[in-house]
Amino acid sequence: MHRSNTCGELRISDAGRTVTLAGWVQRSRKMGGMTFVDLRDRYGITQLVFNSENDQSLFEAANRLGREYVIQVTGVVAERSNKNSNIPTGDIEIIATALNILNKSDVPPFTIEDETDGGDDLRMKYRYLDLRRPAVRKNLELRHRMAFEIRRYLDSKGFLEVETPVLIKSTPEGARDFVVPSRMNPGQFYALPQSPQTFKQLLMVSGFDRYFQIVKCFRDEDLRADRQPEFTQIDCEMSFVDQEDVLQMFEGLVKHIFKYVKNIDFTEPFPRMTWADAMRLYGSDKPDTRFGMEFVELKDLTENSGFAVMDDAPYVGAIVAPGCAAYTRKQLDKLTDFVKRPQIGAKGMMWVKLEADGSVKSSVGKFFTDDQLKGWLERGNARPGDLMLILAGETMKTRKQLCELRLEMGSQLGLRNPQDFSCLWVVDFPLFEWDEETQRYYAMHHPFTAPNPEDVDMLDSNTGEVRATAYDMIVNGNELGGGSIRIHDSELQDKMFRLLGLTEEDAQYKFGFLMNAFKYGAPPHGGLAFGFDRFVSILAGLDSIRDVIAFPKNNAGRDTMIDAPAEIDDSQLDELCIKVDIDEK
């Protein structure tokens, strides 16, 4: 062994011991005849002391050490005269008696510290250096601990972890598949799984009534900061259950992990909200319920005003921002610019202030009387000093715009503390969503989601109003995970395929293996999948999942560290019977 102890292990009780440590040089400080070196490994930092009076050659060798040199040091543990309460080893130091340089280092491109001077692109290029930073390492340690605890919890509930294939058949699941050519089957392709959906259903048919897997999934989609082309799910399925059984089981898992990681006890059941209410009150199927500002509908109070923006709009909605009547015109103009950004798309914003003395001011005051404006404020339960912000337009589009405005105001007012947690279930999603471009229905979740038993009779007559037996777990405005009760009846599954525009031949080609399995006694079953990366990032207080993944991709789907994806040799293409023809555009 190159070391007798780690750099985070020694305490004042070890004083007088001779020890050997190994690690990376964090920094060094030269103070006359003494040099102090902070030595870092995965476990912490220990201060080393090199004294010219004790050993001049050792002292000179220490002065030649650079940042990130890998060294081995032997010395005696001593009590520090100038203690450092910020680190666990801050009461001691090592009086060095021997130094061995195991490897030199170039000057790193950024500082290996929590508050680094490296930007995202630079840190991703040198990710192996970024992972030395304690802040990033702690995220991966949290990920490790959560994975073990999730396995322990599910094992205690009778779940079996079963691995499913990574090279599968391409099936429609809502995003593009990553495809892999088969050399042994020229012209044919595997797909990487977007989820183990069909396999976990087959495991239910096989009699494995409680399955889980912490599994890699792949989706070829445009990326954002909180998306990755490859990600990890906690994938689960149960047999002989209904929706309530699934919600109870996995609410228990989430509560257990919050207690384990954050020591937070959720003693009450998580609230439940229908999809329709979530859209009506928050404009989102993943509402952030850490704060209020629920939508106020004003359409009936604004009609026939002569103000075309409101008269012509099918929807007029507002939020009330508490204590914001003091916002200046400049601040209000910034909010207007915010909602007019292309990614939000509102044409403008209106506002009404309820002043401290009870008077009102409004950007649309010339179209409405003070009494009318006060009627709006009363509906929103506004108090003196509050500000009402209003948008108008097509219903669903405007609700989504108002959602973005609400979240922006929540952030401006400090109401979205990442250390506060609000969890809920969103239920009763629509089973289908209509696409105007293709003039057909698509499954909102996937084609195996069971309709609400109360709505089965409407499948043919009122397709768009059918509710799914589907549910999402929402934490702080993030979709932590979701799932559904599955269709286990072959006839109902056939009808679902037909409503989705799949011919019998298409359905047989894409899902024949599953449909055939259902003929041999499929049990009622259902499940869900949690986004493991997102779960870790929420508990770590991060906005992005990138820093809880060891080697993530950037927003273009590239690994800039290994420079992937990359071209392959013509000989490899020939073996795969593939010709690459790239449009110059």
Write a structural description.
The chain is α+β, with helices and mostly antiparallel strands and 585 residues long. The protein is built from 16 helices and 22 strands. Helix 4 (134-156) crosses helix 6 (243-262). The longest helix is centred in the N-terminal third of the chain and has 23 residues, at 134-156. It starts with 17 loop residues before the first strand and ends in a 10-residue tail after the last helix. 33% of the residues are buried.
Sum up the structure in keywords.
585 residues, alpha+beta, 8-stranded mixed beta sheet, 5-stranded mixed barrel, 28% helix, globular
Radius of gyration: 30 Å
Structural class: alpha+beta
Q: Tell me the helix content.
A: 25-40%
Taking the alpha carbons of the first and last residues, their distance comes to: 57 Å
Query: What is the number of strand segments?
Result: 22
* Outline: globular
Residue runs with pLDDT of under 50 for 5 or more positions = none
Characterize the biggest β-sheet: 8 strands, mixed
Q: Strands of the biggest beta sheet: in what spatial order?
A: 6-9-10-22-21-20-17-11
Number of helices: 16
Estimated share of beta-strand residues: 15-25%
Estimate the mean pLDDT confidence. 94
